[in-house]
Amino acid sequence: MSAVTEPATGPQTGSSTSDLIARLREQENRPALVGYLPVGYPTVDRSIEALKTLVDHGADIIELGIPYTDPVLDGPVIQAAAQAALDAGARVRDVFRVLRELTDYAPHVPVLVMTYWNLVLKYGPDAFARDLAEAGGAGLITPDLVPDEGADWLAASEAHGLDRVFLVAPSSTADRLRLTVQATRGFVYAASLMGVTGERSEVGSRAEQLVADTRAAGAANVCVGLGISTGAQAAETGRFADGVIVGSALVRPLLSDGPLTDDEWAARLTNLAEVTEDLAAGVRSARANALTDDTSDAAPAGATISGEAP
Amino acid sequence: MTDVKLSDVSGPYFGQYGGRFVPEALISALDELDTEFRKAAEDPEFAAELQRLHREYTGRPSPLTEVPRFAAHAGDARVFLKREDLNHTGSHKINNVLGQALLVKRMGKKRLIAETGAGQHGVATATAAALMDLECVVYMGEEDTRRQALNVARMRLLGAEVVPVKIGSRTLKDAINEALRDWVANVETTHYLLGTVTGPHPFPEMVRQFHRIIGEEAREQILERAGRLPDVVAACVGGGSNALGIFNAFLDDKDVDLCGFEAGGEGIESGRHAARFSGGALGVLHGARSYLLQDDDGQTLPSHSVSAGLDYPSVGPAHAWLHDLGRATYEPVTDDEAMEAFRLLCRTEGIIPAIESAHALAGAMRVGKAAAAQGRTGPDGEPLLILVNLSGRGDKDVATAARWFGLLDQGVASEELERQEGRG
């Protein structure tokens, strides 16, 4: 429990992520756009350029993935990028440099690191949390760490004031939802469907119920991910979610089988910017659509955000 | 803890090892499996049905064979083999598969998925699926589908779909990744029939339970045949299911040495091996905390072995626990040593072992020779008594062995072999 004496209007104190989500909800009546990219794909420097592109074109929160040899919750697109990043020599410590550059560039954008647990275990959970906090990171998203196994991480994140984003799934029981919500800080990541990351033609039909159930279990902020790839899907999901998480659809424009020239890379970034803007327009129209019953495609461009903190 | 026998320790943790490092999406299915497993363990009907299958389908109890001509190469020891190679489908794998498949029937699921390396577990799973009218999908690294083309055909004959996995190192580790991805997506209708004592709880405990019959039979058989407990029990350790199955019956007999033999590949110093206890460190892979071959960043390192079944970068958490307790020892056996033991058993006893099991045979030779050199015997000067788990038969390995020993004449047979191995 927090020692702060003010009334508990804010969901969780001390989380820039939950503060941002609350502000977007209250002041802009919209969900956050959470955009994922892996560190080091295609190279560390180019991954920084791609991340800045996400920020410039409308991502509110960044999910920064660390490439891992055995990403069991990722589909083919993110697997391919992670493997290529590792082949190109990406190291775990690169995440701290990327974080530093990104948070210097956009201090108002919370950056959460998404990582499979063994990489943190090997680094040392407390040392990882310390270096993450020092580099300006907001916290961790842990796809293969459930709170039951997370004692080390709960202690380290507490000591360094970091968000703990745990996942819930359509298969989670009410007890599991409560347990997960209690351990979470920042937001709860609700998997829209049973499956791994990847683009799909429809958003999971169980997402809305899962968000409602997770709120009923006490969550202040519930963001939805897995399978969301278009502005229209972001708008649909954003009707009921506090944030929309997109990964594979942002990685796909960057994929290539071989090295890219500077011009080719610039073209990839232009594609990435377009996809991001489409999604950003989607989250901005989510609740307007619900009111006007306008379900046509979201406006394609002009969705860049002003960017400054309040 | 003091009043719990080592052989009855239950999950989710074995010391600091084990646990459930998996996506939340799988937790409710693991809970359901755990509940069903514990209910079945109390149910005499379940035990009776499994026992009937063991007897009428698998051919249990598997025999215990004394091998004196082989033992002449293992110091002055007497060596007995527990003949899991004579089980239906050719290895110990069927014990676990039948147990889990019966659980699946009770849970009402219709679809099985499994990973396989050499193909033994995949063949056993495809067999149980055919027997019990279940849909079956087996994930197998693309490299392994080439190396074990005949086992791919066997699984297809049995009605299973075999999916070659084309990402990562394209071996067993990647097949498990892909099976886990399938399971996350289909967990409500599908059971993941994991083939060894690794993975998230309850798999390490449950798979041990289904294999403990190996040790229980062997204990009874050797008491009857030799009149006493063995001095040494030797087994090969990949994930560790056959080893845990035979060790378990002797865990609480402090005078019985338990010796696990890992794949030393081309030697520890070469970096090309699967010796987790010699070259690994604490880590998490595929849902369990255990010893793991990993680099400085915690990325999984590729393993290597002449035997596909031992070619896995982690090891069952119960073995990690027994290792740290000092209750069992784990040593690497190189490809060369294993193949020499393989050849020796063929020539001296007329038994072609799986190359996996040949690692245990090589280990037994090492232990026997060391004992002879030190003048160590059994009680009252009796010969040292070594029990080896012969976990599988070597039919699947004939092509590898033929190439290793240069047994084929140039020409047609050789070309056929190359073609079968996808190297042509």
TrEMBL record, chain A:
<dbReference type="InterPro" id="IPR013785">
    <property type="entry name" value="Aldolase_TIM"/>
</dbReference>
<dbReference type="InterPro" id="IPR018204">
    <property type="entry name" value="Trp_synthase_alpha_AS"/>
</dbReference>
<comment type="pathway">
    <text>Amino-acid biosynthesis; L-tryptophan biosynthesis; L-tryptophan from chorismate: step 5/5.</text>
</comment>
<comment type="similarity">
    <text>Belongs to the TrpA family.</text>
</comment>
<feature type="active site" description="Proton acceptor">
    <location>
        <position position="63"/>
    </location>
</feature>
<keyword id="KW-0028">Amino-acid biosynthesis</keyword>
<protein>
    <recommendedName>
        <fullName>Tryptophan synthase alpha chain</fullName>
        <ecNumber>4.2.1.20</ecNumber>
    </recommendedName>
</protein>
<dbReference type="InterPro" id="IPR002028">
    <property type="entry name" value="Trp_synthase_suA"/>
</dbReference>
<keyword id="KW-0822">Tryptophan biosynthesis</keyword>
<feature type="region of interest" description="Disordered">
    <location>
        <begin position="289"/>
        <end position="310"/>
    </location>
</feature>
<keyword id="KW-0456">Lyase</keyword>
<dbReference type="GO" id="GO:0004834">
    <property type="term" value="F:tryptophan synthase activity"/>
</dbReference>
<keyword id="KW-0057">Aromatic amino acid biosynthesis</keyword>
<dbReference type="GO" id="GO:0005829">
    <property type="term" value="C:cytosol"/>
</dbReference>
<comment type="subunit">
    <text>Tetramer of two alpha and two beta chains.</text>
</comment>
<dbReference type="InterPro" id="IPR011060">
    <property type="entry name" value="RibuloseP-bd_barrel"/>
</dbReference>
<feature type="active site" description="Proton acceptor">
    <location>
        <position position="74"/>
    </location>
</feature>
<dbReference type="Pfam" id="PF00290">
    <property type="entry name" value="Trp_syntA"/>
</dbReference>
<comment type="function">
    <text>The alpha subunit is responsible for the aldol cleavage of indoleglycerol phosphate to indole and glyceraldehyde 3-phosphate.</text>
</comment>
UniProtKB/TrEMBL annotation, chain B:
<dbReference type="InterPro" id="IPR001926">
    <property type="entry name" value="TrpB-like_PALP"/>
</dbReference>
<dbReference type="InterPro" id="IPR036052">
    <property type="entry name" value="TrpB-like_PALP_sf"/>
</dbReference>
<comment type="function">
    <text>The beta subunit is responsible for the synthesis of L-tryptophan from indole and L-serine.</text>
</comment>
<dbReference type="InterPro" id="IPR006654">
    <property type="entry name" value="Trp_synth_beta"/>
</dbReference>
<comment type="pathway">
    <text>Amino-acid biosynthesis; L-tryptophan biosynthesis; L-tryptophan from chorismate: step 5/5.</text>
</comment>
<keyword id="KW-0822">Tryptophan biosynthesis</keyword>
<feature type="domain" description="Tryptophan synthase beta chain-like PALP">
    <location>
        <begin position="59"/>
        <end position="370"/>
    </location>
</feature>
<dbReference type="GO" id="GO:0005737">
    <property type="term" value="C:cytoplasm"/>
</dbReference>
<dbReference type="InterPro" id="IPR006653">
    <property type="entry name" value="Trp_synth_b_CS"/>
</dbReference>
<comment type="subunit">
    <text>Tetramer of two alpha and two beta chains.</text>
</comment>
<keyword id="KW-0663">Pyridoxal phosphate</keyword>
<dbReference type="Pfam" id="PF00291">
    <property type="entry name" value="PALP"/>
</dbReference>
<dbReference type="GO" id="GO:0004834">
    <property type="term" value="F:tryptophan synthase activity"/>
</dbReference>
<keyword id="KW-0057">Aromatic amino acid biosynthesis</keyword>
<feature type="modified residue" description="N6-(pyridoxal phosphate)lysine">
    <location>
        <position position="93"/>
    </location>
</feature>
<dbReference type="InterPro" id="IPR023026">
    <property type="entry name" value="Trp_synth_beta/beta-like"/>
</dbReference>
<comment type="similarity">
    <text>Belongs to the TrpB family.</text>
</comment>
<keyword id="KW-0456">Lyase</keyword>
<protein>
    <recommendedName>
        <fullName>Tryptophan synthase beta chain</fullName>
        <ecNumber>4.2.1.20</ecNumber>
    </recommendedName>
</protein>
<keyword id="KW-0028">Amino-acid biosynthesis</keyword>
